[in-house]
Amino acid sequence: MDKPIGETVSAPPRTAVAGVSGFAGGELARLLLNHPRLQGETPVFFGRAGEAEVGASTYLHDLHPQLATAGNMPSNPVLPFSWDRIADTGIEVLFLATPHEQSREWAPEAIERGIKVIDLSGAWRLQETRNRDVYRLKDTDPTAAAALQSEAVYGCPELHRDAIRKARLVANPGCYATSIILGLAPLLQAGLVDLEYGIICDAKSGVSGAGKAATAKTHFMYAADNLSAYAVFGHRHTGELLEQLHLEINQIQFTPHLLPIPRGILSTIYLRFKQTMAPAGVSALIGKFYQDSPMVRLHSTPHLPQIQHIVRTNFCDLGFELGPDGKRLVMVSCLDNLLKGAAGQAVQNMNLMCGWNEQEGLL
Amino acid sequence: MDKPIGETVSAPPRTAVAGVSGFAGGELARLLLNHPRLQGETPVFFGRAGEAEVGASTYLHDLHPQLATAGNMPSNPVLPFSWDRIADTGIEVLFLATPHEQSREWAPEAIERGIKVIDLSGAWRLQETRNRDVYRLKDTDPTAAAALQSEAVYGCPELHRDAIRKARLVANPGCYATSIILGLAPLLQAGLVDLEYGIICDAKSGVSGAGKAATAKTHFMYAADNLSAYAVFGHRHTGELLEQLHLEINQIQFTPHLLPIPRGILSTIYLRFKQTMAPAGVSALIGKFYQDSPMVRLHSTPHLPQIQHIVRTNFCDLGFELGPDGKRLVMVSCLDNLLKGAAGQAVQNMNLMCGWNEQEGLL
Amino acid sequence: MDKPIGETVSAPPRTAVAGVSGFAGGELARLLLNHPRLQGETPVFFGRAGEAEVGASTYLHDLHPQLATAGNMPSNPVLPFSWDRIADTGIEVLFLATPHEQSREWAPEAIERGIKVIDLSGAWRLQETRNRDVYRLKDTDPTAAAALQSEAVYGCPELHRDAIRKARLVANPGCYATSIILGLAPLLQAGLVDLEYGIICDAKSGVSGAGKAATAKTHFMYAADNLSAYAVFGHRHTGELLEQLHLEINQIQFTPHLLPIPRGILSTIYLRFKQTMAPAGVSALIGKFYQDSPMVRLHSTPHLPQIQHIVRTNFCDLGFELGPDGKRLVMVSCLDNLLKGAAGQAVQNMNLMCGWNEQEGLL
Amino acid sequence: MDKPIGETVSAPPRTAVAGVSGFAGGELARLLLNHPRLQGETPVFFGRAGEAEVGASTYLHDLHPQLATAGNMPSNPVLPFSWDRIADTGIEVLFLATPHEQSREWAPEAIERGIKVIDLSGAWRLQETRNRDVYRLKDTDPTAAAALQSEAVYGCPELHRDAIRKARLVANPGCYATSIILGLAPLLQAGLVDLEYGIICDAKSGVSGAGKAATAKTHFMYAADNLSAYAVFGHRHTGELLEQLHLEINQIQFTPHLLPIPRGILSTIYLRFKQTMAPAGVSALIGKFYQDSPMVRLHSTPHLPQIQHIVRTNFCDLGFELGPDGKRLVMVSCLDNLLKGAAGQAVQNMNLMCGWNEQEGLL
Predict the structure, then answer these.
(1) Disulfide check for A167: which of A153, C215, D85, D268 has CB 3.0–4.6 Å away?
(2) Which residue ranges does the record assign to the Semialdehyde dehydrogenase NAD-binding domain (chains A, B, C, D) (predicted)?
(3) Which residue of A32, A38, A72 is the best one to mutate when testing the B interface, meaning the one whose CB has the most B CBs within 10 A?
(4) Among candidates C137, C82, C152, C129, which has minimal Cα distance to C105?
């Protein structure tokens, strides 16, 4: 039985977004408002806890002016987060576009109330031990949190489609992690990669990945006409790579860079095969792996993906070049950090949880 | 009777785009492929006459990689333009995203064959006399061309909605012209503007407005981190302003600038009212003018539109500030030059010509 | 006697910059460190009062990494501001790159101590009455402040070269104001402009003009790929235009816009001549006005200045087009807001105050 | 004897630039015009052979408007290239900023005439055998060309300072190659790098590196808001890496990317040490290697270089992070592709060839 949720949610289901004020929240609002399955049932939009900019009469277009409707009618109110409101409106699917700490606190409460949760933060992505190391979250009920953690499904449809369909809590993957995992999974699962040499992931992301807070690093004068590496040997998404790709820490190295563009990630991934390969063989293997995954596009050699091709889409584009030795591979993986790397993937997960085609509302 | 076409085209109608290789052509392809009324009837895509990059086995994603489908399936062929192909496929609506000269030649032939035409070039926008001055087009049959010219409807739905519904040939407006006309029409029609002082339109456009040809001016090193004025006192869109706004050449002045961004136009328009006005009065007048025009959004003072708010939408956003004297007005008008300034407006016109809601496929 | 300072300062003179942490401060440091007349006498660099990032062992390259010397030797300390330190090092010329309030407080004290001051803030640019309206500064000794205000020289060398040479306090002009004043002064002084019609100044500036503070408006995601008008009818630099160009408030209108580039201003200025002019006559008049002003470059028609031409130079570039009626003029004026609009002009003023060629260290 | 040229060139020496119309040529013109040792002896500027834009009355500011002098005086003519002119003006040092083919033809002729040559193309960088493979140049006298090739000095002052001082022909290094060589040379020369694992160089460059020709890839709409990898496993600069770093083809892998910025290169270099190292040891080793090389700046851990820090300077900035295992190293190397990667390094080489301080005119 593939669609347990398809039977339990109403049609259209009642959805809500908590943390709609951030960049991912804004994209999520846009996708849900235009989603063909949600017509007639406008999502409920909440801010984050204690957020100053969400007050008594805040509307979606105050936070995201591009989402204004004709005549700027104040049609989509944004409310301070409230469980009462969630209960009153009978929310069935709750998206959390909130900081780790809030997601860690709110997700159990929502599950308790019988609401399906798709969390866009890092709070539920990692196995319990690593999670405590990486995010240092403080749970009021650690035992219950650990239990929920073990139940949470990592929301990468290309790897865990069936589990997502049945999940109560989906941990939506990190943006960098999605781009790297989708580039590597087919090759690693086939056992082709020589892990002695290690895998190098040189990843570059647009500034929206750094969030909406005005900081020294998100200042236009810092980010524009610039490129900088950061968090070398220490980015939080590394944990997702290790767990989802079944690797040890010394087998993969991931260096993020800040690109002077609004959105998009390009990861250049370097590895060696154990045996000599031909390009057609690599293509066939990847193509087969993703044959039922419509949101992954494999470029035919020698075409490589570029950020422009995937910005404002939910696609992850892959392409590669094989070295003249038939062993060294350069894989390029691109996606939009706010869509396939956040809000788009969250909607893809909702589609699966509701028993719909996973592309609905994403083309 | 409002919808003559609604009765004469099939459902879904058969559409074609000639000149799909350019920026506007690519946006048009994207909009038509996703248009809810065209599902099940894929548009036919043509290149321009004599275009080298469109060959025997060219696909849409070769020209616009972002439009690739899952697995990069070669699903949308692009063909060399051919009347035989148009006849064979029974095209009912033809979009011309071609240079002036080709549009001038092809539109009469298409009309002759009973096909509705929406032309995105400047070939049919101006009255005959001015047209000969501005575009210097050579017609093989000048009398027939002049007759067709007099029948062509300027495709600004906010001004000519009813005529567009009945038109055989719609001349889709220029991008700069659309932004300025929509900003000025309500005030000029109300007779409020003191034309003694003249109207100044300082307009700024992203680089896509300069087209896909690689030239010294579209080189990244010329356009990036730069701003430049051009065609001062001499831009071709001036003619559209004069005709649509019923102005004399010395009553309006329009200076375009090249912005270091991919897309978007912001026009800052300066004028004086004949009499003292209050902001609420100006808002009310504009609001009334566009009350049935869902693609125009009026910002409430003191909010002004920005390019970011309208990029990748079909909206034209308006906002204004009135001087302390109650007479001097600064109007800001923004739109996406490839959408409301080109492909989006073309689809809006198609919607009207087919008897549909003008917003279909544009939200 | 033209060079009172040339005789009273030592060679090389002892200089200091207060507020070196901002963008203009950084440019000032760069110019002074490379200034041929200051070799052997490194300037003293101070932060602003109460500035957290300037501590006990702060060096210039901590604030402006591009100014690091070979091997990143910690050669240029930045100190918390201190009058004792100024006295101990015998500072003769003090640059204030500080907020209005600090400049208003520190300039009188410095003058009192016999130090020449070049203030880059707005604190001393306007005549007393207007100043109180615009900047609302609170003086502990209003009478003394008003007296010093009346003595301050507006630091536009092209208009006030002789007075600057003799000044004790130079108020360095605003960036927008410089671009507009230099574009208009020759035409207004010649009495050619028809002020009935008013002058429209549509000005566009890069983001560095908004300062180093991280705010919602300096966030990369706000500024990039965008354009926005702001402070319509209300920008502080308007006062400088009125005073320096001897205009009334209803005779000139100035609208600033935020460009998605790091630096550079382009002002497009619209006016009408009282009489019919020929382009050569306009060129001759401007050329004569600036014949002894090496930092102004006049483009020959039909070439217009662009931001790229002046970025990282101290030039103000001018160019114009005259309408077919011989009366309507579009003047384009470009400069680098951090150089000719701030630090470069400040050094140009120092050069004059020290009796040197005004271009020293600026080419 | 260190300065053979210092004795043979006049003071100031007579210099010329062939190919001044390109980006590197423009930067070279700027540097030479402001060079303190060349005051009073303006360089002679030539176009390339057969270049349409260089005609009878072309001036430097026609090609590079930012280099206009006050009043736009036509002070720096640009001439069609001519050996007669070179003879007439007694040129002693000739910079070739010309395509490979022209440099290959002109350099021998200049050397024959007793002129020192600094060639910015790839024509003379590689040993003869590899050169024939990579650049496929056709020499009219292959034996003479091979002889000259063996005499040419690779113009990396940090590696070949003494040889450059005595050279008749300096082959100025490639921009990518300079950034990678300077990052790796100290570690490789110390024998610390485990070459079994191979070295990965993920390099990113601004668009000026692609040259001034208007092509599909230099179009603003291609380059802006984008990132793309290219020439994977096949970039011409690879040969320089192999020769200068004494590596085999399977020991180093170099992938260039096109950044959406005008200028600057950042190379992220991944390697493993043979033995466990401490950060201080790595720093000390690099610091010692460059102790007499003022144009290399080493950042102290954990600071990493960024493109902004080096743009418009002749510095190459280095910084690194060492993995927790003490073996895996991420080295970041940044430079301005038009300066340290081209024109600036060429002037640095001229300084050495003339017996001057290598930093002259470069700070």
Answers:
(1) A153
(2) 14-167
(3) A72
(4) C137
Q: Name the closest residue on chain C to residue D293, using Cα atoms.
A: C70
The Cα C44–Cα C95 span in angstroms is: 10
Q: Which of B212, B215, B220, B308 to mutate to test the interface with D (most CBs of D within 10 A)?
A: B220
* β-strand pairing of B58-59 with B77-79: antiparallel
- pLDDT confidence of residue B49: 78
Looking at this predicted complex, what is its ipTM?
0.94
**Residue whose structure tokens are 């030039």:** C315
Domain D175-335, CATH among 2.60.40.10, 3.30.360.10, 3.40.50.920, 3.30.300.20: 3.30.360.10
C115/C322 Cα distance (integer angstroms): 47
Q: Which residues of A touch C (CB under 8 A)?
A: 23, 207-208, 212, 214-216, 218-225, 260-262
pLDDT of amino acid B5: 47
**Subunits in contact with chain C (3 or more CB pairs closer than 8 Å):** A, B, D
A78-98, pLDDT tens digit by residue? 999 999 999 999 999 999 999
**pLDDT grade for D50, boundaries at 50, 70 and 90:** confident
B337-352 tens-digit pLDDT: 999 999 999 999 999 9
CB pair distance less than 8 Å for B71 and A287: yes
CB contact under 8 A, A307 and D202: no
Contact C256, C281 (CB under 8 A): no
Contact at 8 Å (CB) between D320 and D245?
no
Beta-bridged to residue A46, according to DSSP, are A18, A79
For B274-304, the pLDDT digits (tens) are: 999 999 999 999 999 999 999 999 998 778 9
- B68 to chain A nearest CA, in Å? 8
Is the pLDDT reported for residue D2 higher than 60? no
From C156, C175, C316, C334, active-site residue: C175
Q: Which pLDDT band holds residue A8 (cuts at 50, 70, 90)?
A: low
Query: Rounded to whole angstroms, how far apart are CA atoms C218 and C204?
Result: 15
Assigned architecture for domain A4-172+342-353: 3-Layer(aba) Sandwich (3.40)
Contacts of A215 in chain C (CB under 8 A): 214
- Residue A301 pLDDT grade (very low, low, confident, very high; cuts 50, 70, 90): confident
What integer pLDDT is reported at residue D135 of this predicted model?
85
Q: With beta carbons under 8 A apart, name residues in chain B contacting C232.
A: 304, 321, 330
